[in-house]
Amino acid sequence: MAEKDMNAEIRKLQDDFSTLRGDVSEMMTLLREMGAERVEEAKESANDSLQASRERLRRQAASLRTRGRETVDDLEDTIEGNPLGSVALAFGIGFVVAKLLDLGGRR
């Protein structure tokens, strides 16, 4: 009788271990799936951030191009409005730069 009880207990333990093994396997599968989902979420978040940064850079580049064109247009208007003054200014700047470079060579 004691042997039957012991065998029954052993079978019950074996069944419990089998159930536990199945539960652990199921938990591992769920953890892998959760990890894969989190990785996918992180990828999507990084991609969204990258797209937002690209768009922000595009807008800034367009703004800089526009401001550059406006500056060049303003400079051209100034030169066209006062060509003699522009030539004199360019000559003066060139003269100062030449003197600075010449002083550097004499030392």
Question: In words, what does this structure look like?
Answer:
The chain has 107 residues and is mostly helical. It has one domain (2-82). Helices cover 97% and strands 0% of the residues. The chain has helices spanning 2-81, 83-106. Helix 1 (2-81) packs across helix 2 (83-106).
Indicate the low-confidence ranges by residue numbers. Answer: none
Total beta strands: 0
pLDDT average, as an integer?
87
Q: Assembly state here?
A: single chain
What count of helical segments does DSSP give? 2
Structural class: mainly alpha
Question: What are the defining features of this structure?
Answer:
107 residues, 97% helix, YqjD/ElaB, mainly alpha, ribosome binding, DUF883 domain-containing protein
List the helices and strands and how they pair.
Blueprint: H1 2-81, H2 83-106
Helix pairs in contact: 1-2
Region (Disordered): 41-69
Protein name: DUF883 domain-containing protein
InterPro entries: YqjD/ElaB
In short:
By secondary structure, this protein is an all-alpha fold. It is built from two helices and no strands. The chain starts with a helix and ends with a helix.
